[in-house]
Amino acid sequence: MKKAILSSVKLDDNNASALEYMDCVRDIFYSDTIKKLDCFEQHNHTSRLQHSINVSYYGFLWSKKLGLDYRSAARAGLMHDMYFYDWRKPNALRGYHPLWHALVACDNAKKEFGVNDIEADAIKKHMWPCIINFPKYKESYIVSLADKFCAVVEFVDGIEALKKVSRFKLEKSN
Ligand SMILES: [Fe+2]
Ligand SMILES: [Fe+2]
Fold first, then answer.
1. 126 Cα–ligand 1 center, Å
2. Domains along the chain with CATH numbers
3. Residue 47 in 3-state DSSP?
4. What pTM value is reported for the model?
């Protein structure tokens, strides 16, 4: 069962919120392409796939609440980090990571699933304000905000998981 971080909604279940979300992203969510992101770590013990689901689901929820194009936000969120390499391993062929990976993800998204203007803008500029390219659409700001929010929550969640493991090890050694 896949859930976004901090959410109790099972995304592959039959509840109303999950079904509405899935109507936006089903083709990407169940694709072999997106599943490959599970092999890469993103933030402190979170896989890139889980991070992408987190950003996608919160992008969907917040855009829906604000009366925006929640389908585009959900799709862009799921594809915003769709690059298949470990950015920590140096490679002279790649450019400045915050800009480069977003361009690669957008290129992959175009080839694999197709993107509309909002989705392309949201993917390419999701690193704003770490890059100076201002997003063009409100949905792009939502995806960028969801990306930062999820990164922080994932990081804290990873620390909590580490604390639990160390407590367990300490208790076992006593
Ligand atoms: Fe990213
Ligand atoms: Fe991200």
1. 7
2. 16-173 (1.10.3210)
3. strand
4. 0.91
pLDDT band at 131 (very low <50, low <70, confident <90, very high): confident
Neighbours of ion ligand 1 (CB under 5 A): 81
List, for residues 153-164, the tens digit of each pLDDT value.
Answer: 999 887 766 666
Cis peptide before 129 (omega within 30 of 0): yes
DSSP-derived secondary structure letter, 38:
G
Report the separation in Å between the CA atom of 81 and the middle of ligand 1, taken as the mean of its atom positions.
5
Residue that is written with structure tokens 């194009």 in the block: 69
Give the model confidence (pLDDT) of 40-74 as tens digits: 988 778 999 999 999 999 999 999 999 999 999 99
Q: How many helices (H) and strands (E) does the chain have?
A: 7, 0
Query: Rounded to the nearest whole angstrom, what is the distance from the C-alpha of residue 42 to the centroid of ligand 1?
Result: 9
Q: Which amino acid appears at position 160 of this protein?
A: E
Distance (angstroms) between ligand 1 centre and the Cα of 65 equals 24
